[in-house]
């Protein structure tokens, strides 16, 4: 993804895992081979494996910089974290911080970490392992998390379930940030900056998790949406009814997805999702009664 400019904000894709293929029914329980075949003409080998039909996802953050502040949006899976139920995420050793350094940013330069939601593959680099302890990766940052979602997972964690909450990520990637005093809990409609050149606000995006959010960036007439997991794969632009297996409320997730697609369709606004493979960024266009995603090369 080339760098995108929204007002005075510069946006880069910060990669953890550039490409992972997931079984189609693991990602979308209601998908069919016929639906995949109907969309092959516009989704090439970068997005669906030709031999298997598996869906290809990227795991990445967004790095947002202005002259006044630097932010990271969603922090992927993280290194050295035990995730035995999903081998692709288990005990990773990825050059995430090296990739950040290549973009010109060190962890101590980050002012904000913004979480669209608190699933395991969106909070991992909130912390890193130092001397046997999970500590905040970004020592000077304010970590913005949805209040409602945190309370939801906190209640689940306190119930002491037989399997760790969110594959253990609540304990090793969220609670250490809270313990360090760096967490800031926000409402789903939180306005962080109202500047003409660099406006940033959270917006409700119900359905994927309890308290799920998306992030809108506005500046000098330009607009981008960081949608987190409102949409996982480009095929959902054409087939919004495809439901991710992790959606807590599939009907609400569908309504949120369709509303976002309608809002962005045939406009100059960028859609920046949490998992579209490279080149990742693009725009939504109408295609009959549905939509397509046009990648920006």
TrEMBL record:
Top-rank taxon, per record: Bacteria
Pfam family, one: Lactamase_B
Molecular functions per Gene Ontology: hydrolase activity; metal ion binding
Stored SUPFAM superfamilies: Metallo-hydrolase/oxidoreductase
Segments crossing the lipid bilayer: none
Signal peptide positions (record): none
Metallo-beta-lactamase domain ranges (all copies): 58-275
UniProt KW keywords: Hydrolase, Metal-binding, Zinc
Family: Belongs to the metallo-beta-lactamase superfamily.
Record's protein name: MBL fold metallo-hydrolase
Organism whose genome encodes this protein: Bradyrhizobium quebecense
